[in-house]
Design brief:
The chain contains no helices and ten strands. By secondary structure, the chain is an all-beta fold.
């Protein structure tokens, strides 16, 4: 059974940082591309970042380039998203996702506000 368990979200002020994590299970994590999506109120789910199975290749939506870093630890079946210089428009529920396994976890709420 495929599962994604996201954690690490919270409430931070603009300019702050957070690192969110996602532990995946039920499939061969090390052979799969992983992605982070976010869903903000009134908006469609947005692909934020992706990382290749080995971690050697990453990509980001323009709005987070230079601020967010996606990484993974295949030994721990975990994908991370380091978020720096956070802005109010980054407020959303963040989800990890594996394109070949279309399931969603519960997500982790990230709220940026002064």
């Amino acid at each position: 059974q495929v599962q994604f368990v996201e954690s690490g979200g919270g409430f931070v002020q603009p300019g702050g940082s957070l690192r969110i994590s996602c532990i995946a299970s039920g499939f061969t994590f090390s052979r799969n591309v992983m992605q982070w999506y976010r869903l903000a109120p009134g908006k469609e789910r947005e692909l934020v970042a992706g990382i290749s199975s080995t971690g050697g290749s990453t990509n980001y939506v323009d709005s987070v380039k230079g601020r967010f870093t996606i990484s993974r630890d295949n030994a721990k079946n975990t994908v991370y998203l380091q978020m720096n210089n956070l802005k109010p428009e980054d407020t959303a529920v963040y989800y990890c996702y594996a394109p070949h396994y279309p399931f969603w976890g519960q997500g982790t709420q990230v709220t940026i506000s002064s």
